[in-house]
UniProtKB/TrEMBL annotation:
One biological process term in Gene Ontology: ribosomal large subunit biogenesis
Keyword Nucleus: yes
Superkingdom of origin: Eukaryota
PANTHER family: HSPC111 PROTEIN-RELATED, NUCLEOLAR PROTEIN 16
Keywords: Nucleus
UniProt similarity note: Belongs to the NOP16 family.
Keyword tRNA processing set for record: no
Record protein name field: Nucleolar protein 16
InterPro entries: Ribosome_biogenesis_Nop16
Compartments (UniProt record): Nucleus, Nucleolus
Encoding gene (name): Nop16
Amino acid sequence: MPKAKGKARRHKYSYNLNRKRLYRSARRRAKPRIACSRIRHAWDPSKSVAQNLAEMGLSEDPNKALPIPKKMPGMEVESNGQQPGKKIVRKPYVVNEMEYEASLPEKKSNTLSRDLIDYVRYMIQNHGENYKEMARDEKNYYQDTPKQIKRKINVYKNFYPEEYKDFIASLKPEKMDVQ
């Protein structure tokens, strides 16, 4: 039988290599990835992660910041009113900016495809509220059932309520002219 070719032959396991030491040194050298620009700006690379987060008023371990009390039903936990180990926050602007950013209202990013909008408008324009007739229409390419079409129309109503009202209002004069 011929010998194995390619990568399998070249990569042999080295038993003499201490992988624990290699892993530890690589982990020690790695810098933490910081997603928030405010934290990245206030970060001091000469300090540890715990020290940096404590200076900013952030918690390293959420379980220590908000501990879950271990109490049995019927037993009450007594506290003497003192907070254990109050830390000094040297960079409060980081937390203040993050709280401000979190308090801003979330921008709606719900949009529908142009094809779906045109499909819904066509169905409403030609068939009104008759979903069974919409299901039999020739433009129902995906062979949607009446319930699926109704659901799509409701999604359109919820995403674009003003546009839907204007569209329905523009249809009413056309129907009056026909009669």
